[in-house]
Amino acid sequence: MERPFPAYQGDEPYIFVSYAHDDAALVYPEITRLRSEGFNIWYDEGISPGSTWRDEVALALTQCRLFLYFISPRSVVSANCLKEVNFCLSRERKVLSVHLEKTELPMGLELSLSDMQAIIRADHTTPSYERKLSDSLKSLLPNIIEPIATPFDKPIEADSDEKSIAILPLVNRNLDAENDYLCDGISEELINGLVQIEGLRVSSRLSAFAFKNQDLDVREMGEKLGVANILSGSVQKSGNRVRISVQLNWVKDGSTLWSHRYDQTLDDIFELQDDVARKVIDALKIELGSKDTDKVIDVGTVNIEAYDAYLAGIYATRSRTHRGFERAIGFFKRAITIDKGFLRAYWPLCDCYIQLARLFGAPREEMLAAARDAIEPARTLDSERSRLPWFDIDRDLDSGLETEWDLRRLARQGGEMLLNPSHPGNATDPLRGYSELALVLMRSDLHQSAILFSQRYLQQSDSFTVKHMMGLSVCALGRYDKAIDIFTKTLDQVPEYIPTRSNRAALYCRTGQYSKAEIDLAIIASSVRMSWAQLMLMFWHDDLDSAREYFDEMQRRKNLSVDYRAIGRCLFGNIEEGIQYFEQAFQERQEEMKWIRPILRLYLPQSTIDELERHPRYQALWKEMGIDDQWREELVLMTNELTDVTGIHVQLDEVH
Length: 656
Prior knowledge:
Distance between the termini: 44 Å
Number of domains: 4
Strand content: 5-15%
CATH superfamily of the largest domain: Tetratricopeptide repeat domain
Number of strands: 11
CATH architecture of the largest domain: Alpha Horseshoe
CATH topology of the largest domain: Serine Threonine Protein Phosphatase 5, Tetratricopeptide repeat
Shape: globular
Radius of gyration: 29 Å
């Protein structure tokens, strides 16, 4: 029998329909009517006896909000229908049974459905039955539907005015990518210099760089960026010679206000950048204040080799990979060796060691020692502590890279970095404000908004850590399919990153895709002897005795962190001991506690999470950590003050 419509594919809550293939003539009119009433329906075309129960079915069952089981003498003996019933009950899905015909239930099925809502079709007239079915579905489904946030389509800026400009990334005219660092570096220096000019509004780097390598009309770009003028150009380098062509266009009619071609040596790059900035200022008829009369752009050194090495280092850090940070260390060391007074290069060198420890598990004490050695000369160069982010530097070094728990301070810092492109915190990552706020929002259980900020970051930087973080937020919202996709993209980039592979394996287990999980587990086993993902395979396979034995063995190992001991206790029903371990983990300021709430949604059944969140001690713990409804409301207000810059409007999630 022909299928009446495609199964639902989307982000809104949906109903999974289970039925026997031989009942299609009875079921298809039912689900067609429900779909016309606005219900989202997922159904299979009918799985005949002996056919394969696919991963697609398991995933759809895991994510459905309601399981609708059409009962008939055929469906109660269907192996696949019974498998669907058992699977949905193990995943704690809501169940509504509709008895299409008088049917004697097998004893096991009767026991499983004994406390579930049911409708007997024969007990009602047709209008009464249809009304009761619709009302029952509405009562079991959530009233408010919040779709997963979609990627931000275009940057939003304030209304354009004549004294506004966007500096596009200069185009690399060389055939290789080796000179990309120089093109991006010059563009960023122009942004950082011009943003300091009073009376001139400069579009953010994030917004402008979104148009990198896009061949669009200047008027279209200006409209999207909300500026009246656009500076664009290109760079071609040959040895020590460089040709830089730039032009300033008026967006309203596309006319050229000023253009110039510089054929010079790299030794002249400082004067060249300053000259471009001044020509822009003159063309826009902006009067410079007394503080701007010396140099519009001051790069912090007069040595071109040191500056070139610095730009190459900054470019290398943007990859956010292990190799990228190691290469950047070499470039920054070279810059400092050439010019020991180049203050600007010390902080990113220090930060590279910190990121290697945080992101890639490099020996913490060794990296801390290297970071302290790297930053020490800068303390003398910046004796007034006014030119580098010393608060952040000292916090990281003094705390031994322990987790920052002051979310209010982190949120304010992220906002400051977004409002001020030349903020020292943007030195190695000009998008850091977005990732900082994404992390704060995620830790505060505002996952819809965390996803939006992560997506804005990922428009310009292919950071696997931000992808990983976004995957956790998507998982926390119950969209396991999208979370798996995000984790897969992360692993395509860094296949050796075990935390992401472990998370994907855990989701495969949770959604019944066991064969895929076993592939990941084999890779994980080559790096670690015991893994949490292996425990998840046993747990979701309902092999609880083996899972408990495995967890007991993990506990006997000294390196099982306190927070994971807490998760294990909760997993096997010992909520009181679990909370005790969570309290200990917080007192010890363990790093994993900042991810713990989305991680709970990755590993624990929803009923266990509900029991945890009702517990007074657990609620008190999060209040002590500063995460409660009052803080969320404050964070929403703080973040929405940045909407003119970010284009993102934050609101509370439907469920915390």
